[in-house]
Amino acid sequence: MNDQTITFAAICQIAQLVQQISRTGQVDEQDLAIMLNSLTITSPENTLAVYGGDIANVKSGFSVMINHLGDSSANNNKAKDPDLTRYIISLINLERKLAKKPKQLAKLGSRIEESKRQLEHFDITSETLAASFASIYSDIISPLGTRIQVKGEPEILKQPLNQYRIRALLLAGIRAAVLWRQVGGKRRNILFGRNKLVITAKQLLNTI
């Protein structure tokens, strides 16, 4: 259950980072680095190792989970954002489509390996790496189904660096969704097991 909660929190945190960039053009560079770096960790010792081995690295994801899956009283509904929810569900749905296409999965793996080689010369948050990950998302993930329509400020969304970072984060979101499924995450868990997820998220948040 801890692994399912950590990986689902990563999906939520990525959705939140996408939203921050699209609305403000700003993002915490450390959060961005952790999520983009998850794309390069292909043989982790455990689930948390994908996110730097520190539970605090998905702290904001736990908060998003608690707000969006928690009790649906009027007070809590104020904290829920329909765009954020749409990004989370869309990432999970796209990953399910990817899982049924082994050729695309293999292509995805080889393209990520190519991008990893650029780390010898560029930082993970550089425009070069963001553009590289963004092109993988556009070439392999976007054609799988309904594209994720990111809402935000038009002027911010026109800027190439913001476009690259958003697509790179969406690719990291697919990675998180793959992990979530590998540790037993299922869409029905969100509908029928949300209380367990919320309780576990609160417990993990209290350990930080």
Describe what this molecule looks like in 3D:
This protein is mainly α and 208 residues long. It has a single domain (2-206), classed as YcfC-like (Orthogonal Bundle), CATH 1.10.3890. It has helices at residues 2-24, 29-37, 59-69, 74-77, 82-99, 102-117, 127-141, 154-157, 160-182, 187-192, 194-206. α1 packs across α5 and α3 packs antiparallel against α11. The chain is globular and about 40 Å long. The relative contact order is 0.21.
CATH architecture: Orthogonal Bundle
CATH topology: YcfC-like
Question: In angstroms, what is the radius of gyration?
Answer: 16 Å
Principal-axis shape equals globular
For the residues shown, what is the average pLDDT? 92
Helix content: 55-70%
Unreliable sequence segments: none
**Count of distinct structural domains:** 1
The main β sheet shows up as:
none
Spell out the CATH superfamily.
Answer: HflD-like
Percentage of β-strand residues: under 5%
User: How many individual helices?
Assistant: 11
